[in-house]
Amino acid sequence: MAVVEVKTGKNPPATAGQIALYPLVPLGNHIWPTNARMLSLGYPPGAYLPPMLFALVYRRDAASDLKFYGLDDLGPKFKIPKTGGKYSYEP
User: Fold this and answer.
1) Domain residues of the chain, as ranges?
2) Cα–Cα distance list, 76 to 4, 6, 59, 90 (Å)
3) Edge-to-edge strands, sheet with 67-70
4) H/E stretch holding 1
């Protein structure tokens, strides 16, 4: 199983939750879904998820090439505001 995050546009935002959870994805047994949608993947709400691969796919616009990033690539690219505001990702 893998987590694939798709971002499009110029400097697409990442939520605080995404920034907090992405590093835990490959560890496994640290994240548990609370949404019943995970039942379609065989995971009931409240069950810990196993270790998974993580990838981010980015495309600025229709004329741009796809870019692929692994978890190790994301650290410095996430911009965390010092005082509120949106989180953003700058590929």
Assistant:
1) 2-89
2) 19, 18, 19, 9
3) 2-8, 53-59, 67-70
4) none
pLDDT at 75: 63
Structure tokens at 60: 């600025």
- Give the 3-state DSSP-derived string for 5-46, with helices as H, strands as E and coil as C: EEEECCCCEECHHHHHHHHHCCCCCCCCCCCHHHHHHCCCCC
Which pLDDT tens digit goes with each residue over 32-90? 888 888 888 888 988 899 999 989 899 999 999 999 988 777 765 555 444 444 444 45
- Of 22, 2, 8, which Cα lies nearest the Cα of 67? 8
- The answer to whether the beta carbons of residues 13 and 89 sit under 8 Å apart is yes
Q: Which two tokens stand for residue 57?
A: 């796919």
